[in-house]
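Lab manual, section 2.4: Encoding a predicted structure.

Procedure: take the sequence of the chain (255 residues), apply the prediction step described in section 2.3, and record the output as structure tokens. A sample record is shown.
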Amino acid sequence: MSSPASHDEESKGYTPHMRGVALGILVMGISLAAVIVLWVTIGYQGPDFSTQVMERQQVGLHEQYGLPPPPELSPEMLEVPPSLRSVAQGGGVAQTGETGGGNQTTAAGGGNQTTAAGGGNQTTAAGGGNQTTAAGGGNQTGETAAGGAGGGGATAGGSTINILEGSSIQGSPDYDPEELTVSAGAEVTVVNQDTVLHSATSGTGPQDPESAQQFDTSLINAGESATLSLAQVTPGQYDYYCMVHPYMTGKIVVQ
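Recorded output:
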């Protein structure tokens, strides 16, 4: 039979152990509560988080460069990818006509156009992008003055440079084509297919003393376009870049 003294010694031995267990439970409880609080306040962003960030960036850039506020989009339009919004709103980025006969005429400013007709008279006149006319018979006339393809021979009419979606991410494809060859006096349409502001400004970068001296689109809103007039630009090779993202660069060769 144990004595009272030995019983006290055993109780004293268990007390520090129980205190350690209780302290561990308390720490775990506090940690769990902190995790729950953090998740409730900032942990769940929701599916609209990226859209909200993009909208705030657009507003900030418009304010920084003194541009009018960006247009408000409906919830349905926000679900449409930026490169397809002009199509969803009735724009003419991609046009396709397939008809059986009669007289057909397609006139478009840019994008990809395809006309396939079975007969009759067909006329296609397009300003830019890729155009294809395939007809079965009758009189056919195709007038195309377009860029859209990198390098190659000079174009006498209008040409197009596309600022690709996602080009604001450094290292991603940006200007398409990277090098465009045009004739002296030509006009170049610059289409911003990205979701943020961009420009096509002559020069090698913001530090270039000749920056914007030859040509400059100024800032182009997402989904919009601007025209570069090369009427005053002498033949030669000209670098250009984006004022907002200077790592985006391209080249125009005037012949």
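Check your result against the sample. The helical segments are 4-43, 49-64, 75-78, 85-88.
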